[in-house]
Amino acid sequence: MNTKTKRVSIFLALVLILGVFDIYTKHLVFEHFSVVILTSAEQKLEQSMQELSPGVFVPWAPPYRPIKIIPSLFNIHIVLNRGAVWGIMQGQKIFLTVVSLIAILFIFYLLLFKPEMEKFWFPLALIMSGAIGNLWDRFYFGGVRDFLDFYWGKHHWPTFNFADVFIVVGVSTFLLIEFVTSAKEKKETV
Q1: How far is 179 from 186, CA to CA, in rounded Å?
Q2: Catalytic residues
Q3: What is the average pLDDT value for the chain, to the nearest integer?
Q4: Checking phi first, is residue 20 left (phi over 0); if not, alpha (psi -120 to 50) or beta?
Q5: pTM above 0.70, yes or no
Q6: Looking at residue 38, what DSSP letter applies?
Q7: How far is CA 30 from CA 96, 106, 131, in A?
């Protein structure tokens, strides 16, 4: 097995493992934690929050109460996000699906036909696995299943999932590698 084939095999294995992990964690949470239904007062509060910031969160129907895991820090909160990150672009399923497919194909193109992209195989695997996990949800559930809910006092981060983590860490790692290698190249030319 040559080096390129080995590298592509490792890349695909990582994408598969992380993609399955994301989809499986969503399945576990949505199957086993979706039993805590909101009271009518909580539903009214949730509805008024939706009216104040429309499209930020689209609750999985029926609405579910967040389950406190670490008080004042972390909840499991079942949400179906029909948009992109932070709930933007609500209802744009076709556009977001096409963008995800283009991103996946573009990553394959970069890895197979651009040897200079070899240094980015790990962050690209993270980005691709996240894109595949969220694409799966859009296709099968009409939106992305989010459940990780972090907050500190009144400061609340939008609910997300592991696919989102993979994408953010992948993009951050990609940028870090690019920054470090370009700084190194500049030093060598001076």
Answers
A1: 11
A2: 146, 164
A3: 84
A4: alpha
A5: yes
A6: P
A7: 22, 31, 20
